[in-house]
Every structure is written in C-alpha cells, then in structure tokens.
Amino acid sequence: MIRITKGLVIVALFLCAAGASAQNLKFGHINSQELLMAMPERDSAEAKLKRYAKDLQDQVETLQVEFNKKYQDYLQKKATFTDAIREMKEKELSDLQQRAQEFEQTAQQDYQRQQGELMRPVVDKANAAIQKVAKANGFVYVFDISTGAVAYFSDQSTDVLPLVKKELGLKETTATTLKK
Q1: Which residue positions in the chain have pLDDT lower than 50?
Q2: What are the φ and ψ backbone dihedral angles of 142, each rounded to 5 degrees?
C-alpha cells in the first residue's frame, strides 16, 4: 500500500513538473503557401517556368502540325498508292504519332524537373527564414497550416508569417484569417 502511494505521489509530481514545463513551450504556425506567394523570387521562377512551358508547347505543336500535314497528304494520295507505299506511309504516320506522344511525356517530366529546380531556392530561402525566426523567438514548434498536417490549433498559437515576411523584407499584407 505504501509502495502504491509513493508511486502515485511520484507520478503526480512528475505530471505537475511536466505540466509546468509544458506551459513554457512556445508553439507557432505559418501558412508557407502564403509566404511563398509573397516572395518576389517566386514570381521570377514562375515567369521562367512559363517561358519554358511555352517552348515545350511550341515543340509539341510543331510535331502535331507535321503529323497533320503528313496525314492530310496521305489521305489525299491514298488512292494512288500501291499497297507497299500505303503500308510504308501508314507506318511513317504511326511512328511520327508515337514520337509526338513520347516527346509530350518527356516534356511533362522535363517541366516538373524544371519546376523543382526553379522553386527549390525559393523554398530553401523561406525555410531558412522560418527556422531563423523560430529560433530567435523561442518557438519549440512551428506548424505549417497550408499542408493540412494540423487539424486544430489554439488561438494562442502565434502566426509567424508576419515575422518571416519581415525577416525577408516583404511588406505586410492583410492578415490571414484561419478557419477551424
């Protein structure tokens, strides 16, 4: 009985100490998507990405125009072709269509790779600023509410977006309202 009482007292003291130290913990939240949208570097990366996408789209359209011309030519002259020439032309059209499809798939992969390369420095800069602000202000955790990883946060949680924007030298816009 005495062991149980001592055990309960120790557990109670431990919980009281843990509760007291937990009250000193500082938590914050940020909407990293809003931060990224406010960064001028993102605009520059987006502009480069749009130009890259346009170049890829132009190449896809060039292949499509080439295919359409050859297909129209084939349809117009089909009746005059021998069986061997018709088969050769059909194979040529099939090969051209396949090349166009393969190029389109490769273009999509290249676009995604380029997007990652262009956005990586922007995301790294934002993450570095978040870490710097969190350390300077004594935050234990900063939750990113834009990813949906946090289902609930208290009104006592501090939005560090204004602090990070200030760290990056970005002007403050209207405050974000968070819906629970």
Answers
A1: 1-21, 151-152, 176-180
A2: -125, 120
**CATH classification at residue 76:** 3.30.910.20
How many other CB atoms sit within 10 Å of the CB of residue 171? 7
In-domain check, residue 13: no
Domain that holds residue 104: 24-167
Q: Which amino acid, one-letter code, is at 179? A: K
Residues 6 or more apart whose CB falls under 8 angstroms from that of 26 comprise: 137, 138, 139, 140, 158
How many structural domains is the chain composed of? 1
> Other C-beta atoms within 10 Å of 173: how many?
12
Return the pLDDT at 155: 64
For residue 30, what is the enclosing H or E element?
strand 27-30
Residue tagged 């030298």 (tokens): 169
Helix (H) or strand (E) holding 19: helix 2-22
**What global pTM score does this model have?**
0.64
Tell me the β-bridge partners of 142.
28
Residue with tokens 């204004």: 162
In the chain, beta strands by DSSP E: 27-30, 141-144, 158-159
